[in-house]
Specification:
Blueprint: E1 2-7, E2 10-13, E3 18-26, E4 31-39, E5 46-51, E6 57-59, E7 67-72, E8 77-82, E9 91-99, E10 106-107, E11 111-116
Parallel strand pairs: 2-11
Antiparallel strand pairs: 1-3, 3-8, 4-5, 4-9, 5-6, 7-8, 9-10, 9-11
Amino acid sequence: QVRLVASGGGLVQAGGSLRLSCKAYGNIFSIDAMGWYRQTPGKQRELVASITKGGSTDYGDSVKGRFTISRDNALNTVYLQMNSLDPEDTADYYCHAVRILGGEGYWGKGTLVTVSS
């Protein structure tokens, strides 16, 4: 089992920045890619960004050029630097880790990001 603990959400004005962190605990050798998804009421959860152990990254179209995902494998932690935030970025952000053996993977509790106009 893997437990994901996220932090760093909060309230920021449009144009500002926030950094989210997510640390994995437990059987960390069972996971590969880690990343962030976000969800707003009435909408499906969408990919924000992901990163493999080797450092390959993937971003949702709406955040490309503004958000940067990074990873410290020694600390089992993934970071999401969010710049030029827009009110449309307001959502619950969820950390996710992919299980090497497949399946749903692991989810952390959401951390709320609110961007005011």
